[in-house]
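Protein modeling request. Please complete all fields; requests missing the sequence field cannot be processed.
Requester role: graduate student
Desired output: 3D structure, token encoding
Chains: 1
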Amino acid sequence: METFLFVLLLILKILGITLLVILGIVLLLVCLILFVPVRYSGEGSFIDNKPKFRAKASYLLHILTVSFDIEDEDKLRIKLFCFRLNKKKQEKEEVFSDEPAEESGSQPVVENIAEKESEEKIEDLSEEIKEEKAETPEEKPDETTPEAPKEAPSGHKFTKKKKEKKEKSTKSPGIYDKIKGYMEKLKRDEVRESLALCKKQIGIVLKSVLPKRWDINGSVGFDDPSTTGTVCMIIGIISPWTYKHLHVTGDFENAKIELSGNFKGRIYGVVLLTVFLRVFFNKNVRKAIKLFKEE
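Delivered output (295 residues):
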């Protein structure tokens, strides 16, 4: 009896340890997904009418990397532990297309035999068709039997369709009525509160997703000096928000665009998850969705 209890306790101990290990691995993965950010960066330029752009995103100490380059032939590259995942089909086909020259020499002989057999079959079929035509005489239409008069199309179906269209038009509300109904729904308190919440959460998402560091440098010039002046005016208007990042001057003598820039940022999974949960479990958002689903 004591040995049985000892074995049972030992089995339970092993099961408990395995469950704790599995839970620890799951928690570790969840923490990595939520709290380890996805880092991204990029740089580009537009000089002498030649655009250049490179971007890269990495996760978990560059274990997973995604890179994009306009000048590269592949453009998009996805790597996991330094192993490329999205290889081109051409590279795979080139590996399997290396065959010995002896096999290629036997192909035309097989093709010639197949062509001869197909030609013989076509000749046999044409001879059989000619014999059947010679045996069966041509049938002539009887002149005595008059042709049956064609039935005139009845307009009963068209009247039915018109009635159905009229019934549908009377039943279905017009565009003006639909717009009026939507405007009345937008005036409700739950819809207003849900829209305000969504607006706030979208701002939080954009703030966390947009790059933290970005810089644009260069000069801009056009054929017409007035367009160059308008561009400089727009840069001056937005300068209170972009004076640290945007450094672009106007060139009134030369018509050319020379720009270069770079950016860096991070995306945290915790922020996206919290925003989703706030919107999804909000009562006002659910009520607003039900209102707009109603006919």
